[in-house]
Amino acid sequence: LLLVAVGITACTQNNTKEATLKNLTKNPVITFHADQLIIQGMTEKDTMFIASSDNYVFRKDEKAELLNGYQMYKEASYHHPYFNVDVVTHNYYDGDSMVHDVYAPMEVSRMVKQKANLKRRDFEFAEGSLITMLQILESHGFITVREKDTVVNNTRYYYIDALPENDTIRHELLIDKKQNLPYFMRITTNTFQPFIEEYIYSSFAYPES
Predict the structure, then answer these.
(1) What pLDDT is recorded for position 184?
(2) CA 87, chain centre distance (Å)
(3) What confidence score (pLDDT) does residue 79 get?
(4) Could you say which residues of the chain have pLDDT below 70?
């Protein structure tokens, strides 16, 4: 009986992951929203909270190999904690170049980098988005430490705790088991002098173009 129960649990876990992967990749284009919270410790006793409202568009494109075969557009809106002003940023990668726009009372600027000059750090804006979700679900560059069914606020979720290969940055992903879509991700880089990023996902859609 124990072996049967373990087998059923493993099958359910695989079904949830496979269904979520299918929902995230079934269309050439996917859009969604994320409410992001960055918890950043400036000193041991001084912690800053930065809330951002983010909109994403991903389009499959084989030539965009620097971002796992996707073009990406991200719009982020947040309140700058130092200058006390509202800021909007746009990041767009089309497979050939990266465009970064900033719109703020003290700055309106555009930076363009061609593919040959792009470095890994140029894609930090994609952290916590579709690319990270797929890497965790596919165990591509990630090692799953723990996975289980759980309940939060009377809603059933599938929980995955994963680490990047050769790193200790913890990634926790919650999948809504009813929709088979990601609901929440927490990326913990440091807990002592905290640097933690949290994302709540919503409004997944599949435009025609």
Answers:
(1) 98
(2) 21
(3) 94
(4) 1-13, 43-45, 209
Question: What does the pLDDT read at residue 196?
Answer: 93
The amino acid at residue 57 is V
Contact in structure between 20 and 180 (CB atoms under 8 Å): yes
**Rg of the Cα trace of the chain?**
18
Cα–Cα nearest to 57, from 76, 34, 33, 73: 73
Q: Where are the alpha helices (DSSP H) in the chain?
A: 2-25, 130-137
Q: What is the pLDDT of residue 81?
A: 83
- Written as one letter, the residue type at 40 is Q
Nearest to 35 by CA among 209, 182, 167, 208: 182
Q: Is the pTM of this model over 0.85?
A: yes
The CA angle 180-52-22, to the nearest 5 degrees, is 20
What pLDDT score was predicted for residue 43?
64
The sheet with strand 195-205 has its strands ordered as 107-114, 97-104, 86-93, 70-79, 46-60, 29-43, 195-205, 181-190, 170-176, 155-164, 142-152
- CA 196 to mean position of chain CA atoms: 13
Please report where in the chains the tokens 């800053």 appear, as a residue. 48
Q: Calculate the alpha carbon distances from 57 to 34, 97, 149 in Å.
A: 12, 16, 29
Instruction: Give the tokens for residue 3.
Output: 């072996």
Local structure of residue 171 (DSSP, 8 states): E
